[in-house]
Amino acid sequence: MWVKAVLLGLIAVVCLGLLWLQAGGGWQPPLLLALLVWSACRVHYFCFHVLERWVEPGGRFRGISELLGLAFRKWRRR
């Protein structure tokens, strides 16, 4: 598991470096990419950890579409 985490981190660092070089040393593209990745990770965490643990305890979701479908069905019942 640790090897996988290190390899994924290495991929991220290499991609960030290549993007920075391609942007001509500018700071905006790598910063925007880092913000995009960070926010996507936070949304994923929210969808699968927070909702599964605190909002819908015991619920297991196979994907975001199933989670959204459940939320829509609950919303329609109200």
Summarize the structure.
By secondary structure, the protein is an all-alpha fold. About 80% of the residues lie in helices and about 0% in strands.
Q: Low-confidence segments, ≥5 residues, pLDDT <50?
A: none
Terminal Cα span: 43 Å
- Class computed from helices, strands and strand pairing: mainly alpha
How many domain modules? 1
Helix percentage range: over 70%
Rounded mean pLDDT score? 78
* DSSP strand tally: 0
Name the overall outline: elongated
**Integer-rounded radius of gyration:** 18 Å
Quick one: biggest sheet?
Answer: none
Secondary-structure element sequence?
Answer: HHH
Beta content comes to: under 5%
**Count of helices?**
3
What does this structure look like?
This protein is an all-alpha fold and 78 residues long. The protein has one domain (2-77). The chain is built from three helices and no strands. It is elongated and about 55 Å long. The mean pLDDT is 78.
Features:
78 residues; mainly alpha; 3 helices; 81% helix
What topology does this entry show?
Layout: H1 2-22, H2 28-55, H3 64-77
Helix pairs in contact: 1-2
